[in-house]
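Hello again,

I reread your note about wanting to compare the complex against the isolated chains. To keep things tidy I'm splitting this into two emails, and this first one only covers the full assembly. Below are the input lines as submitted, including protein chains and any nucleic acid or small-molecule components. They are followed by the predicted structure of everything together. The single-chain runs will come separately.
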Amino acid sequence: MSRVEVKKTYKLYIGGAFPRSESGRSYEVSDAKGRFLANAAKGSRKDARDAVVAARKAQPGWGRATAYNRGQVLYRVAEVMESRKGQFVEEVRAAEGLTPTRATAAVDAAIDRWVWYAGWSDKYAQVLGGLNPVAGPYFNISAPDATGVVAALAPQESSLLGLVSVLAPIVVSGNTAVVLSSKDRPIPAITLAEALATSDVPGGVINLITGDPAEAAPWLATHRDVNAIDLTGVAGTDLAWGDLERAAADNLKRVRRPALDGLSAIEEDWSVTPTLGRIESFLETKTVWHPKGR
Amino acid sequence: MSTFEYAPAPESRAVVNLQPSYGLFINGEFVEGTGSSFKTISPATEEVLAEISEASPADVDLAVKAARTAYTRVWSRMSGADRGKYLYRIARILQERAREFAVLETLDNGKPIKESRDVDVPIAAAHFFYHAGWADKLEYAALGPNPRPHGVVGQVIPWNFPMLMLAWKIAPALATGNTVVLKPAETTPLTALLFAEVCQQADLPPGVVNIVTGAGTTGQAIVDHPGVDKIAFTGSTGVGKAIARAIAGTPKKATLELGGKAANIIFDDAPIDQAVEGIINGIFFNQGHVCCAGSRLLVQESIAEEVEARLKRRLQTLRVGDPLDKNTDVGAINSGAQLARITELVAAGVAEGAERWDTGCPLPEKGFWFRPTVFTGVSQTHRIAQEEIFGPVVSMLTFRTPQEAVAKANNTPYGLSAGIWTEKGSRILWMADQLRAGVIWANTFNRFDPTSPFGGYKESGYGREGGRHGLSAYVVTGGPQ
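Full-complex prediction:
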């Protein structure tokens, strides 16, 4: 007789802990063929606000960590994911309906993306910053600095590779993140949260909320303590990215628009090697002057 | 002790050839606008300088179409090297006609001639010279793969540095291959119209630069025009937010350089005399009409009394008056509306319990004037510590520890600039790391250079102007051509 499997309760990931939604709600998650997979926590706008509080609390420490340290932390995420690769492949396959080969390729690429971004941690500042030869006796230097707390809508289709492709460039520079996962494909996101919790990412640096982004996204867009918002995951939802961008103007959030075909949001091809663009979207340039003299 | 009085040393107005009225500069020519007109005055005397056209939405449409045609047929096809040569020409003509620009700027804006002559105009020319060199080197600027222009850029600039802001906007836009429709501020249109003549003298292809004068509705017509691909705005945070809302969901992009409430932080080991000069330069430069002005003075408690005394003593030597006089330190407030705003906020400061002090210096009878003013006993919640006054008014607060200085400095929705005064190098670098501001001046203040990126964090806007960073706002990258 076969063993009765122990099923897992899927929860949110806020401030390094795994709470249920404060709303007490859950929703059914199915695989690509419509078969029941699990009940995932249906995050509320209050959960999103709690996540912003956690992200704000974690930001100064993460932002002050050395670039070398942040690089190692991101690399550690890749290591931990690699050790749970089988589970990720299964979950991506179920969520996205991919063949085993293609699911494996997606998970491989997601792990490699952490490695790619880990390597950038102590390099983008050299590429993007530098001395400015001002016309006068002054030392003048520009360097990138983290924007702060970044809210992100993770892609709806690419449940893991897309999520990692959005998340890693936000946190590599010292930002902290509040991420709304794919609505219909949240399981790989929760497993990623478990990998994060057992790697070296400090609690609160990455916060993941499952549920319907249409509920929390408008609140994150208007939230006064969110510095930037990544609208990538608007594609494939009923949300209008222009409405979120308009709401974000209340405190002049930096807005990363979704990929567009005309004015319609579309999901990007995540297999393409990224550019520095996503890292740059969530950076400020700080310029410091000092006189030279004897 | 008796003092020597300064003899008047007025700069001659003869170098400026004012016309009674001006049209709009569209497609390389001055044309009559279809809207109404308004007068631009000298804020120092309230003398009417000229009649200015208020560009209607139809005029803006003409300008955008001219810019589009110039972009498609000429400017986007021209080599970077040739674009650069036009910018070099403009830079040279600005240098040749520098005195004329300086006098005209001072007449129209009210700022002291020594500032327009030594700061605004030379740095404006330098911006064109700097960006000219980028025009054929964009692939080296690390902007991303395949950098290319947006197309037509709409630019709206403020009245505090009319010519300098024009240069900050037009030079990078043209260097990267865009064409522009620019609106100068309602109260300071004259140097932009003189710049149109410079474009003619440089034989700049018609339509590459279009200047439309007017007020808020003209600006809105630019922002809303579907033929404009990108907006660059410098001005108030309120209008900046309105622009961000207006372009949300459209193909347009924007860079916004908005308000500030900079902390100028004085530690007890700072060289006090230099710091006092820095405080004065920080807030009384350009009558305090500076978005990055050091309007919140944070002084370490142990030296607060001494700094206050020395500051007040030094302020009494500032010469307030005729902006055209070469000895004038503080000129006229740019407009009656701005004077009313300053007066209202200063009254609020008194009503909320802060202590007001001013130099008591005599002021001219005509024109818009405000004495250099210091508030002490200011708390962080006072409006004068939170809101941008944009005038010659500094609010003094104290702190005990570097941590407290950082907390107070960052306690604002703005994040444009900050100043640090201390002899301790490690403290400067620590403070610079902690401060959430785009430009940080250590042991100096209010320095500007075309190679140095300028722009803010948080509600001071987004994007940078100047340097390699400023170019990125004017290109799109990646993808197929």
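For quick reference: Residues 235 and 267 of chain A are 6 Å apart (CA to CA).

B.
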